[in-house]
Design a protein that fits this description.
single chain; alpha/beta; six-stranded mixed β-sheet; four-stranded mixed β-sheet; 11 helices
Length: 271
Amino acid sequence: MAYQDILYGVEDKIATITLNRPDRMNAWTPTMEREVREAMQAAADDGGARVIVLTGAGRAFCAGADMEVLKGLDPDDIRRRGNELPAFDMNRRADWQARYSFYPAIAKPIIAMLNGATAGIGLVHALYCDLRFAADNTVFTTAFSRRGLIAEHGISWMLPHIVGHANALDLLLSARRVSSEEALRIGLVNRLCAPDDLREATYAYARDLADMVSPSAMAVIKRQLYDVPFQTLAEATIDANRNMAIALAGEDFREGVASFVEKRPPRFKGI
């Protein structure tokens, strides 16, 4: 499929979605929104892709919404377009069916490879990814309050779950610029790399997941962790016990044990 504002490809069981407006620091557009969703669906459906990497072309991940596009948008049209989106996966809870919150509904790990400025709607998308690897010169900002906007697209829920309530209030109220070092300290990112090393480190991690980890186990673990905020400990334990019984009867469990005993790489079948 041909895309206008993104690039998409699959190699070594890793699907890569690249925001591709480097001349505009990958500023977010309605076209990019549609294409990222379509590419995420393609990666989710592709049996040859076990991990997804989301990144940006050039010197930024995503500098936020394109202000030139935003100036001409009708607020009613923006709301209408968001409400008209179909559910990404009807089998998942409604919390993961909103306009941008569908990433947790994807049964594969999604790594945000943050190669530069990550702001506003760009930060929202980074937060909905499962892991965040960043270049050590990346600058982050929520941006919204300095544009007269509120905490948009579920960031008021997602950000405190990642960095804690007090840090989230600080970042959202001030919309100040946050260095990569501070982002690592407060848990906003998982790992920092020198800019020239970021791609190698991200893909080494992604290849390890794709080659050495059971896809069915990753899918269940991801669902478990995103369901936990809505569960009691008892409910989480009951759910784990039910899924453990399924896992013990599965091919991936038998292959995982066999590969360990035989001291060879595993040959997992997939989800």
